[in-house]
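Predict the 3D structure for this chain.
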Amino acid sequence: MNAQVTLVFVLTFIIHLISTLSYALRIAGIRTRRIAISLALFNVLVLISRTSNTFQGPLLAKHVEKNIHAPSLIALERDFRWLIVAATLATLTGIVLIPTFQRIFTKAIDAFGRYRSVPRLLFQAFSVNALREMRVAARFPAREHFQLFRLDQAPTRILIYNVIATALLTAGVFASLYAGCLQPELRVTANNLSPVVNALSTILLFVFIDPYLSLLTDDVISGKVTDSYFRKCVALFAFSRLIGTVLAQLILVPAAKIIAIIAEIL
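Done. Predicted structure below.
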């Protein structure tokens, strides 16, 4: 990988790591019973992720422009697959770090309640005391979180939706850029057709997955389900996300070909 692809690899890693660690923030919100504050901190994570995403697209597009007329597209396809590997590694890292960041976010939620200022909270996060507390908070995932539900206890349908949505979101932008390689004369059109792949994932996320997690959060607060059940559900969602990033490897080329065909039809 050249310098540009390496930088995009890092940005992709950051984007997917933050997405996975958002599950830890949900658990912290449940533990503190301060859901509104946890949502405010979640928006800070989203801001960091979207900033990384802003730079990811142009850097990768420039790399494609430089190599789009190469005799073989094998090298470009390999670069895209490495970027999907970055998503998988980031998700796996996030799963391992969820117990640690659950404790860190719990402290952050309490601190935000005192400071009532995001800039001040971020400033305090890099203090010596905060860094020492991060080291103390380090934990590996507990063994019971790896124990699977019985089939009738797990939200199987929603988990499958999460796998599909993650796979499509992971492959969507990469597939549209790769479609531009397959149809160089229509690459601008192809690059703007990522919603062809991402549309279904957006529907799954906003119609099924996010509402389910929101209802599950309310059920925990009201006492209808236990905190332990919620944590196990979060672990399953994180693992289904990991499976989705792996599935994105299979989706990449077929999705790119579909986008290339649609670009030609338009």
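The two ends are 34 Å apart (CA to CA).
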